[in-house]
């Protein structure tokens, strides 16, 4: 998917919502556990209920890998379903990969060629040669960790080194890499006060923003400081939407929560 196609979907749906598909068998409605593939059936119901309100879906691969080969099959069925039935949706493999040389190339092939995700999240700690293999894929996007929403982000990301915070150095350096136009960045909603500085460095890039909802991030604050002329934001919500109910009405309740966010986004876009 091209960046322009993503922008078009935001305009059509009046939404920049990304739904995180972080499926925990201990949290999904009990009646689904009787089915052959409860993870996929849960995802399918959530997707069918919310696809007109969301422009993106983001399975976190850890929630599938934890269940071994069965979980990986559920992930493959989920991405196949999205690509076949809702091809205009932007898909994100939240895998946080990153290794040097051929290893990163193989990670990229796994998510871009085999599973056919539109994007994948990566960790930049190992530098250019751990990220550039992902950037080599045409019309695929690499979403690099920049400033995350967790408490431990302050351990390294905001440290000042030679007069500049590390996350700023990461952003600036990444712009020099080959095919850097294929980069997007993860910036946590709980760090809303940092968005102004981040936009000075990457004014045109899309930012994937977790932390709105269950983690306490403010949508209005993120948009105030982080939105650009093309919106430039994908606001992720996982638990607040997909676990809105533990009953047979789980998909209906998920839609209600997604619609609340979409309506708030529509008001902001106006």
Question: Can you tell me about this structure?
Answer:
- The chain is of the alpha/beta class.
- It contains twelve helices and ten strands.
- The chain has helices spanning 3-13, 38-50, 62-65, 68-85, 102-114, 128-135, 153-156, 166-174, 195-201, 219-226, 239-242, 250-269; strands at residues 17-20, 56-58, 90-97, 119-122, 141-147, 160-161, 164-165, 183-187, 207-209, 233-237.
- The strands form two sheets. An eight-stranded parallel beta barrel has the order 1-2-3-4-5-8-9-10, surrounded by six helices. A two-stranded antiparallel sheet has the order 6-7.
- Helix 10 links the parallel strand 9 (207-209) and strand 10 (233-237).
- The longest helix has 20 residues, at 250-269.
Short synopsis of the structure:
This protein is α/β, with parallel strands linked by helices. The protein has helices at residues 3-13, 38-50, 62-65, 68-85, 102-114, 128-135, 153-156, 166-174, 195-201, 219-226, 239-242, 250-269; strands at 17-20, 56-58, 90-97, 119-122, 141-147, 160-161, 164-165, 183-187, 207-209, 233-237.
């Amino acid at each position: 998917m091209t960046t322009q196609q993503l922008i078009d979907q935001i305009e059509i749906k009046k939404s920049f919502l990304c739904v995180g598909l972080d499926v925990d068998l201990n949290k999904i409605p009990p009646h689904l556990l009787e089915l052959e593939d409860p993870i996929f059936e849960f995802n399918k119901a959530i997707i069918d209920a919310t696809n007109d309100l969301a422009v993106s879906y983001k399975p976190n691969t850890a929630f599938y890998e934890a269940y071994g080969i069965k979980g990986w099959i559920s992930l493959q069925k989920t991405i196949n379903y999205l690509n076949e039935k809702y091809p205009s949706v932007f898909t994100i493999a939240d895998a946080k990969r990153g290794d040097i040389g051929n290893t990163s190339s193989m990670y990229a092939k796994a998510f871009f060629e085999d599973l056919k995700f539109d994007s994948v999240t990566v960790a930049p700690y190992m530098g250019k040669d751990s990220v550039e293999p992902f950037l080599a894929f045409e019309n695929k996007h690499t979403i690099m960790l920049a400033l995350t929403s967790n408490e431990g982000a302050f351990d390294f990301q905001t440290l000042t080194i030679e007069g500049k915070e590390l996350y700023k150095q990461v952003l600036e350096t990444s712009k020099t890499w080959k095919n850097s136009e294929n980069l997007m960045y993860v910036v946590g909603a709980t760090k809303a006060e940092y968005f102004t500085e981040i936009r000075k460095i990457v004014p045109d890039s899309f930012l994937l923003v977790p932390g709105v909802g269950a983690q306490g991030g403010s949508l209005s604050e993120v948009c105030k400081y982080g939105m650009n002329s093309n919106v430039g934001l994908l606001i992720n919500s996982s638990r607040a939407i997909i676990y809105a109910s533990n009953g047979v009405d789980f998909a209906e309740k998920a839609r209600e929560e997604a619609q609340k966010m979409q309506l708030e986004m529509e008001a902001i876009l106006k």
